[in-house]
Amino acid sequence: MIFTRKYHKSVKKSEILTKNLQPPASAPLNPEQAYASQLEQLQSMGFSDRARNLAALTATLGDLNGAVERLLNSP
């Protein structure tokens, strides 16, 4: 009986932890959607290669300044 309770508590904890690791249902999964405003800003700054811009934003998790730095320092 004691073992069953401990196991049950352990299972509940792992279910809760697993739930917390999943992204929210409303989060956009497409990087192009997630970074739409940053892509527009990069375009307005003169960075016209959308694929490179998206790669830089993805690598910097959407950080515009980091993406600009990355674009300026890459060949």
UniProtKB/TrEMBL annotation:
PROSITE patterns: UBA. Residues 28-74 form the UBA domain. This is UBA domain-containing protein. One of its GO terms (molecular function) is polyubiquitin modification-dependent protein binding. It comes from the Eukaryota. Gene3D superfamilies: DNA helicase RuvA subunit, C-terminal domain. Coiled coil: none annotated. One of its GO terms (biological process) is ubiquitin-dependent protein catabolic process. SMART domains: UBA (SM00165). It comes from Caenorhabditis remanei. GO terms for cellular component: cytosol. Pfam families: UBA.
